Amino acid sequence: MTITYYGYPKCGTCKKAEKWLTNNDVNFESINIAENPPTKETLQQMISNSGLDIKKFFNVSGMKYRELNLKDKLPNMSDDEKIALLASDGMLIKRPLVTDGTTVTVGFNEAQFEAAWNA
């Protein structure tokens, strides 16, 4: 199984997640989320597969999130607008974002990774 891993090289959490995947012999394709954010269609599929609220996909502690004042704007946006916003800037997406096309994890939680990616 090869999974797609969207991360940011300077992100400490992403480094921990990559190390976990490597140490657990999980094959993954690494994509720099800042340079190549997932497309709107890919995000829609991931959100649908994850069963999570779209809000969980936002990097609420990121500078971009604060600069754009999204805490106040998101409640008034449609799901389509939120997804388009996420697709427009990878730094707005909570990372790492990992998927195999069916399963999706957002952020790094060792127990969650263990359940999802330890084949």
Give a written overview of the molecule.
The chain has 119 residues and is an alpha+beta fold. The protein has six helices and four strands; from the N terminus they run E-H-E-H-H-H-H-E-E-H. It has helices at 12-23, 40-50, 63-67, 70-73, 79-88, 110-117; strands at 2-7, 27-32, 97-99, 104-106.
Offer a concise description of the structure.
The chain is an alpha+beta fold and 119 residues long. The chain is 42% helix and 15% strand.
Largest sheet: 4 strands, mixed
Residues in β-strands, percent: 15-25%
What would you report as the Rg, rounded to the nearest angstrom? 14 Å
Which blocks of ≥5 consecutive residues have pLDDT under 50? Answer: none
The run of helices and strands is EHEHHHHEEH
Mean pLDDT: 95
Strand tally, please?
4
Shape: globular
Q: Please identify the structural class as seen in this structure.
A: alpha+beta
The rounded distance between the terminal residues' Cα atoms is 8 Å
Number of alpha- plus pi-helical segments: 6
Q: Characterize the quaternary organization of these chains.
A: single chain
How much helix, percentage-wise, in residues?
40-55%
- How are the strands of the largest sheet arranged? 2-1-3-4
Jot down its keywords.
119 residues, alpha+beta, globular
Task: Describe the protein's topology.
Blueprint: E1 2-7, H1 12-23, E2 27-32, H2 40-50, H3 63-67, H4 70-73, H5 79-88, E3 97-99, E4 104-106, H6 110-117
Parallel strand pairs: 1-2
Antiparallel strand pairs: 1-3, 3-4
